[in-house]
Amino acid sequence: MDKSKLIAVVGVSENPGKIGCRIFTDLLKAGFKTLAVGIRGGAAAGETVYKSLKDLPVKPDIVLTVVPPAGTDKTIDDAIILGIKEVWMQPGSQSEAAAQKAKAAGIKVTEQGCFMVVHGIW
Fold it and tell me: Measured between alpha carbons, how far is 35 from 73 in angstroms, rounded to an integer?
């Protein structure tokens, strides 16, 4: 995985025990450029948690979803509007409708496997 790519993790909360926060902080520790998105906002690992993809200061290269499928559907809508080119749906966040919509919009979608395991972070 190219560490110069900016990854937005959608589903980050302030709770360090939650999987979204763990993925976000472990990506940071592994040297990835990473932004956090969580519906409640706040902060995680000393970084701002933005309330939506639309609130990010820059467009990410990859969006990593760590939310229930309904949240993935909303995330894909925002990704299409923003022109994001790649989405990785973590296990449990997959939505067939969102994947089809994303692919139809020209977004590369990964629906199988954990990003963290596939890229040797965990």
Answer: 19
